[in-house]
Structures are given as C-alpha cells and as structure tokens.
Amino acid sequence: MKTDTIKTIAKKHDPKRPLAKNCLMSFIFGGSLCALGQMISLFYLYFFDFSEETVGDPTVATLIILTMFLTGWGVYDKIAQVAGAGTMVPVTGFGNAVISSAIEHRNEGFVLGVGSNMFKLAGSVIVSGVFSSFVIAIIKTLLA
Amino acid sequence: MVISVFVAFVVGGLICTIGQLIIDVFKQTPAFMLSLFVVIGSVLDGIGLYEPFIDFAGAGATVPITSFGNGLVHGALKEAEQSGLIGVVIGMFQLTSAGITSAIVFGVIGALLFKPRS
Amino acid sequence: MKEALQVRVGQVSYQFHTPIIINEYHTIAGPLEKNGALTAYIDTFIDDLYDGEKTYENCYKKLICDGISPLLKKHPDVQLLFTGDLLNQSTPTHLALTNRALTPITFDHACANFGLSLLYGALSIESQQQAAVFAGTMSHFAAVEKQFRFPNEYGQQKPPSSQTTVTGGGFCLLSSNGTGPHITGGTLGAVIDEGFSDPYNMGEAMAPACFHTLLAHFKDFNTTPKDYDYIITGDLGSVGQNILYDLLREENYRVNRNQLIDAGCEIYNKNQPIFSGGSGAGCLSLFLLSKGLKVYFKKPTRALVVATGALHSPLSLLQTPHIPTIAHLIVLESK
C-alpha cells in the first residue's frame, strides 16, 4: 500500500487537540500566574524597601519557591496538563524544568545526577537567550 | 493597584496563549517555543521596546520567560556603557541572576526534600 | 529416514507441529491498573510505583523478579526466559535475574517483545532444544517516562493521541504438555518506517507495521480475517486501532469491528487519564495472560495475537526524525 494512503488514513484518525479549550486555559492560568506575580511585587513594594526597578528579583524568587513545593508534591505536572503553555511560559515553568530534573535525578547522586542533569531541559532556554542577547548587545554597543 | 493586577493578568495571559498557539497550531515543541520567546524578548529590548512594555504591564511583562531575554540584553548593555565591548560578557547575567540562582538553589533543596512521584 | 515436518511456511511464517501450550502464568500490575478494567483477572498488585524500593528502576527490577518467581519456584529446571524490557540493555531484567539458574534471552523490540518472546519460545520447543521455557514481559510507567520522555514532575501537556505506559506485565510457562491454549503458528515482522515521527502518537506509527505483518500472515497461511475469532493487538491504542481497521478495509479484508481487540484499550476504564490507551512492553502480556486467557480463550477460539513495537530512542529521534516500527504475530488456539 502506498505511503500516501497510509498517511491520509492516519491523519483522519489523529485526534484533534482541543485548541479553544487549551488557549482559554493557558490564558487563565498564565494570566493568573502573572497577576499573582504583580500582587507579590506590590506586596514587596509596600512592605519592604524595594523600588520599581529591583522588585522583580524577590518576586521571581518567591514564585520559584512556590514552584519548588508544587513540583515536589507532584501537583505542578497535573496543573500543566490542563494549563499547557499557561504554566510553561511564566518563570515558574523555567523553575519547574530545573527543579523537576533535579528531583528526578537525585537517585543518581548529587554530583552526576542532580548536578549534571539539572539544566537538561532549561539549558536550551539559557543558551538561546544568552547567544541572541550577546549578538544584539554587541551590535548595539558597536552602533552606539 | 487593582488595575495593575488586572493588566498583568490580561497581558500575561495573552503571551501564554500565543505560546499555546505555537505548540498546537504550528506543532512546535515546548522547548522551541520557550527558546523563541526568550529570543523575542532580547530582540524587543534590543530595539528598546521592552522597557515601556514593563512600565505598562508590570508583572505581565516580567513574569513570562520573554523577560529573561530582556534581562540578559539589558544587563549586557548597562555594563557595556561603562566598560566597553567586554561589558557585554561581564554584564550578561547581572539582572537575570535572581531567576537562575534561585532555580538552582531551590532545585538542589527540592532534590533534598522530595523524591519523584508520578 | 522420516522427513521432518515443514516448520517454515511461506515467506516469514512458521507452523508448529508439536503442541506448544501456555500452561501457567502469573501477572502483576501497578496502582493505576488496579483501578482499571482487569482488576478481577490480575494476580497481584503493587500499591505505588516504588513498592518499597528506592528508585523506579529498582521497582521495575522487583516487578520482574516478583513476576517470574512463582513460576520459577514450581519449575526450577527451566533454563530459558524469553523476554525484553524498555530500559537500556534490558538492565531491569538482567539485574532481576542475578544469581539465578535462568538464562534471560532479551530482545530489543520494545513493545513487540512479548510476541517475539512467545514465537521464539515456541520455536525452541518445536525444535526440541527445550522441553519448557518461560516467556513474558514487564514495563514500569515512571522508569520508562524518565528514559523516553521528560522527568515525571515536569509540567508538560500531552496531546490526546499520546499513550500511557502500563505498569505491570506477566510471565508464562510454555511447554509441550498440560492444558491451555496452543500456539500453533506465527509470523515474524520486518522493520517498517512509513515516515511518522511524532513520539506522542505511537498508534499511527505502529499500525502500519501491524498491518504489514497481518498481510504477510494472511498470504503465507492463505487465510483471511474470517478464519479467526479475534485479532488481538498489543498497544495500538484507540488511534492505532482505528487506523488498522481502515487499512485492512482499504486492502479489502473484511474485518468485524468486534473482532479487533487492543490490549491498550482494554486495561483501563474509560474515565482514567490515559489518553488514547495503554502501551509498553507489559501491555500485551498483562492483558493476554489475565483477561485474555481467562475470558476469551476459555471457549474454543482461534485468534491472532500481534505485538507491535516502536523501535526509536530519544537520541535517534533527534538525529533522524523517524519512528521505525515492527510487529510479530502468533496464532493462539484453544480447543
């Protein structure tokens, strides 16, 4: 039988991803995480000695602590199945990628397990970010 | 105050929805989508658009991963103003260190506290 | 001298003349399967994916150990175990059988291992090399997830076409005397690559392999689906099963929808979060050695059992985005 026929039949039976539901859920969950971030920022702005410029750092750290517990209790992956990109795009997704790899490989030891595998998922984000930022910053500095 | 939370909700939600569309419609892997977002963030800061975006959306712009790219470029440029080209290398992680350091630290603590469950 | 009876049939098939009987069997399964549809038929369960062990891999090892031990205790003189699991170099199997007088013959055909194990077990009895052998497979959800996908805690969104690896499996004793269903023939599959590359849709990748092996079988034995009561597939899931049905219809083989049984679709209840069905090396062995033998083969039945497997690795998939697949078939009859 021709490969094309097989492909056509396979395509017919590929279950559709629930696009509308996925988008709505990622909007709600992603939006809620950002709103939570904003509330944490406001909290640090009003009760601690932070400025608009520096308040991002404690906010990110707080969100990542939260992620650590949700990941460790095995809740984050259950939420992510519903939320999709809503839990991947915010900084909690970065935290989850790092922390889940660290927890998964603790049985292989802290040096070769946790240490070497921690960035196996989040590494791509750092590498692409640093390289593109390097190029952009060099160009801007040379032009200025 | 309440308005700023609402704006963060809408803007952050929209960015995540774009991410979902990249995964579901253009059939890309999550890793590709996240890398693309970081690159977009750094490009936006390169042309000077990310700062006004943060002023407008607050956490809606700083919590999504795009702000990681923005932070990298921003730190590099800030240091480059003072120490020239080498500043790009020195300053790269200056502003983003909070995210990376806390992820590493809490990753290790997490590995100490928890074991994987399915 | 008496002419030996022909074992080889057609291109890739075998016909057995000595009775090869699935005599005894033992099944073991995990917590998700405990709440599934086969609970009444499975022998033992583990309560969580660690079962008192420190790591998932050790638990995988323990599952194999616990699965084979009851059989080994009763038949200490059996020498060979035909099997194969999903981790690197079948380490769980080899670790589980350390310091035991049993030689494991492990295959690397992923989820198709059970079919190949039964077929080769049968061949070794047919050729009178062995009087009795063990065959069986096992899989473990979290250990496989860790090797083939992402860390278990990583927040990913699986599409509806993805499948869930079964925790559990079963082992059986094949011998030439006793009571039980007979393996009367089999067909070996070849590696098929139709260009599918989505690791979250294994059904579409494996269905063509299953289809090719079925066609080869029908040709070699000169039979049609009408000659069999059931076609039991390994782990195509609902997606792959629908594709197989359409492929057979396209080739003008009239199959009844009720004739097709997929182990991946039978193990769980409809409301469990398993997406398009179960998969994994233990999927078919768990189903066949529990509900399969206890329900379908209680009455006189002639069925094809097809184990399908995807032969990619996470590394190969990144280098060449193709999922090669394979399927092996046995004819199982009860009188």
Automatic annotation (TrEMBL), chain A:
<dbReference type="InterPro" id="IPR005562">
    <property type="entry name" value="SpoVA"/>
</dbReference>
<feature type="transmembrane region" description="Helical">
    <location>
        <begin position="83"/>
        <end position="103"/>
    </location>
</feature>
<protein>
    <submittedName>
        <fullName>Stage V sporulation protein AC</fullName>
    </submittedName>
</protein>
<feature type="transmembrane region" description="Helical">
    <location>
        <begin position="59"/>
        <end position="76"/>
    </location>
</feature>
<keyword id="KW-0472">Membrane</keyword>
<keyword id="KW-1133">Transmembrane helix</keyword>
<feature type="transmembrane region" description="Helical">
    <location>
        <begin position="21"/>
        <end position="47"/>
    </location>
</feature>
<dbReference type="Pfam" id="PF03862">
    <property type="entry name" value="SpoVAC_SpoVAEB"/>
</dbReference>
<keyword id="KW-0812">Transmembrane</keyword>
<dbReference type="InterPro" id="IPR014203">
    <property type="entry name" value="Spore_V_AC"/>
</dbReference>
<feature type="transmembrane region" description="Helical">
    <location>
        <begin position="123"/>
        <end position="143"/>
    </location>
</feature>
UniProtKB/TrEMBL annotation, chain B:
<keyword id="KW-0472">Membrane</keyword>
<keyword id="KW-0812">Transmembrane</keyword>
<dbReference type="InterPro" id="IPR014204">
    <property type="entry name" value="Spore_V_AE"/>
</dbReference>
<feature type="transmembrane region" description="Helical">
    <location>
        <begin position="6"/>
        <end position="23"/>
    </location>
</feature>
<feature type="transmembrane region" description="Helical">
    <location>
        <begin position="85"/>
        <end position="114"/>
    </location>
</feature>
<protein>
    <submittedName>
        <fullName>Stage V sporulation protein AE</fullName>
    </submittedName>
</protein>
<feature type="transmembrane region" description="Helical">
    <location>
        <begin position="30"/>
        <end position="50"/>
    </location>
</feature>
<dbReference type="InterPro" id="IPR005562">
    <property type="entry name" value="SpoVA"/>
</dbReference>
<dbReference type="Pfam" id="PF03862">
    <property type="entry name" value="SpoVAC_SpoVAEB"/>
</dbReference>
<keyword id="KW-1133">Transmembrane helix</keyword>
